[in-house]
């Protein structure tokens, strides 16, 4: 049983003899350990506490409870005459090793009274231990927070050279690889950074910089830094941390691309709904695709099963041989064609209407490493069906135009469309000093064919006549059947000295078509009149036909089967 006799002495068990100063006077005022700043306990050989001071209360409870294995080993050593230590001695609320620690002591156990007792001197280190633990915990918490908030921390000197970096390094580099180097050497474009966070004399918060990692992939870092100043207010570098937000930024860019592509697709749908002329709709679509994908050239072509026709072109002109390869591949049944060169990538996809191929979208992107993203491919697939519909509309529209502008028998322009084109040409070329030739052709003795052989044979003659004209004229010349057996040809840009010979060449080319050996009365020929003119202000289309018609009738009156060309003011030139 413990009891307190004064403020400094706690006795337990059998009290020592009053004459035994070694036992009794340990902790009394003036005794050898009365001023010891810690716990003092005298333990008998049987393990019981014989005396102790006030600071030893928890220690005495621990001893009376039996102590711990470590304590008992140390006590045994002290009772055997050898000093021992337990550092630290943890006193818990219960005997369980997992129970709460009430106090901690640095404990020294000294042999006493010839091995009949042991003197325990203990320093309570609970506060120190708690502070140390709190500091360790604080440091760990700071490290955890730092690791959670950034990927690596760093310090640089005034030259921007890294003098410290967290042990794990960063950007795929080890700490030793980054230490001593300038991280700005990894910047994708240093000029794009508003502030260089590694060498700035003002605080920098959340500055985004794109860098290349050890695999040469681009990464986006958000950097926060503070300048470092000496006591003499001399700047000697920066300290900060970096957080890798590449994934976040790429996700944002993907979302932005998706929104952009959706807007482009909606824009194309809007064009399809509002633009009634298919060729204009396709031209607008091509214009939208240039910045949307982006690409350097777009060509949309219509295919009617035999002939390819470029309907809309935007951007740079595509090479003819590349277009030919694309068309050949698509005609053979390929739905996607791609070829890559050092200059760029050419991609073409076929368009369909009701599972029938009717054209292609051809795209060109410059650049040695030009790639196509899945999002761009998705946009093309969505646009593909809409363009297929528009190309089908274009084909129908072209058929209607052909029917309304051509002669159904010969396939040449009809009179109305021919006059429309010629009138537009005059307006567009007013003031041009080059000369142009309008020919008026009339078949001689055509009535005999219809009377002798019927209109079916007469139609055949007209078609043969038209075919000869097609083969003997230039690609940009305009041919028309004005009605019956009357034809007209407009030849733009013909020199004066060539006008009569061109007309004569046409007439001679017609001779085989007019020949028939089995009928001596068959005497088909043609009278050709021409008018050579320049586009003048206020010039009337009717005047052109008047002059060329008059020239043709001069041939008729002079015996038919000939050519007569006049120039302005009815001056004959041949």
From TrEMBL:
Cite the GGDEF domain residue spans from the record: 434-568
Which molecular function term from Gene Ontology is one that the record holds? diguanylate cyclase activity
EC number of this enzyme: 2.7.7.65
Q: Which InterPro entries match?
A: DGC-Regulatory_Protein, GGDEF_dom, Nucleotide_cyclase, PAS, PAS-like_dom_sf, Rev_trsase/Diguanyl_cyclase
Enzyme superclass (EC): transferase
Pfam families assigned to the protein according to its UniProt record, in alphabetical order = GGDEF
Q: Which PANTHER family match?
A: DIGUANYLATE CYCLASE DGCT-RELATED, GGDEF DOMAIN-CONTAINING PROTEIN
Q: Domain of life here? A: Bacteria
**UniProt keyword Mitochondrion present:** no
Instruction: Write down what this protein is called.
Output: Diguanylate cyclase
Oxidoreductase: present as a keyword of the record?
Answer: no
Keyword list (alphabetical) reads: Nucleotidyltransferase, Transferase
């Amino acid at each position: 049983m413990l009891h307190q006799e004064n403020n400094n002495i706690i006795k337990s068990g059998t009290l020592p003899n009053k004459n035994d100063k070694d036992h009794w006077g340990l902790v009394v005022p003036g005794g050898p350990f009365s001023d010891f700043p810690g716990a003092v306990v005298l333990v008998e050989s049987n393990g019981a506490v014989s005396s102790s001071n006030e600071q030893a209360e928890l220690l005495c409870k621990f001893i009376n409870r039996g102590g711990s294995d470590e304590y008992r080993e140390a006590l045994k050593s002290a009772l055997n005459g050898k000093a021992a230590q337990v550092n630290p001695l943890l006193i818990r609320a219960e005997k369980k090793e997992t129970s709460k620690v009430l106090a901690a002591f640095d404990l020294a156990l000294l042999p006493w009274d010839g091995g009949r007792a042991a003197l325990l001197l203990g320093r309570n280190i609970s506060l120190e231990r708690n502070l140390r633990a709190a500091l360790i915990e604080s440091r760990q918490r700071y490290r955890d927070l730092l690791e959670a908030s950034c990927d690596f921390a760093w310090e640089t000197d005034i030259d921007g050279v890294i003098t410290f970096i967290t042990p794990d390094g960063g950007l795929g580099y080890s700490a030793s690889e980054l230490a001593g180097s300038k991280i700005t050497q990894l910047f994708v474009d240093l000029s794009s950074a508003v502030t260089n966070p590694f060498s700035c004399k003002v605080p920098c918060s959340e500055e985004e910089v794109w860098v290349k990692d050890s695999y040469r992939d681009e990464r986006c870092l958000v950097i926060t830094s503070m300048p470092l100043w000496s006591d003499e207010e001399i700047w000697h570098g920066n300290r900060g941390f970096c957080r890798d937000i590449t994934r976040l930024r790429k996700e944002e860019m993907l979302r932005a691309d998706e929104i952009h592509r959706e807007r482009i697709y909606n824009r194309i749908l809007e064009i399809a709904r509002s633009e009634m002329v298919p060729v204009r709709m396709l031209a607008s679509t091509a214009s939208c695709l240039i910045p949307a994908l982006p690409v350097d050239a777009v060509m949309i072509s219509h295919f009617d099963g035999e002939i390819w026709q470029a309907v809309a072109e935007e951007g740079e002109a595509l090479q003819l041989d590349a277009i030919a390869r694309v068309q050949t591949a698509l005609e053979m049944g390929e739905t996607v064609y791609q070829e890559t060169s050092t200059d760029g990538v050419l991609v073409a996809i076929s368009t369909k209407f009701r599972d029938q191929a009717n054209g292609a979208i051809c795209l060109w992107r410059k650049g040695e490493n030009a790639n196509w993203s899945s999002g761009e491919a998705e946009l093309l697939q969505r646009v593909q069906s809409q363009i297929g519909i528009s190309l089908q509309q274009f084909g129908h529209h072209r058929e209607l135009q052909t029917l309304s502008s051509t002669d159904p028998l010969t396939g040449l322009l009809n009179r109305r469309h021919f006059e429309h084109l010629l009138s537009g040409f005059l307006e567009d070329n007013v003031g041009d000093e080059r000369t142009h030739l309008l020919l008026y052709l009339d078949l001689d003795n055509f009535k005999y064919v219809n009377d002798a052989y019927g209109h079916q044979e007469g139609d055949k003659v007209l078609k043969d006549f038209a075919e000869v004209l097609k083969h003997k004229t230039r690609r940009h010349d305009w041919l028309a059947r004005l009605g019956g057996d009357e034809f007209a040809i407009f030849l733009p840009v013909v020199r004066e000295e060539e006008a009569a010979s061109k007309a004569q060449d046409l007439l001679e080319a017609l001779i085989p078509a007019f020949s028939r050996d089995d009928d001596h009365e068959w005497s088909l020929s043609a009278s050709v009149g021409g008018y050579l003119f320049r586009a003048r202000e206020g010039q009337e289309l009717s005047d052109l036909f008047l002059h060329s018609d008059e020239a043709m009738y001069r041939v008729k009156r002079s015996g038919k089967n000939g050519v007569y060309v006049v120039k302005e003011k009815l001056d004959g030139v041949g």
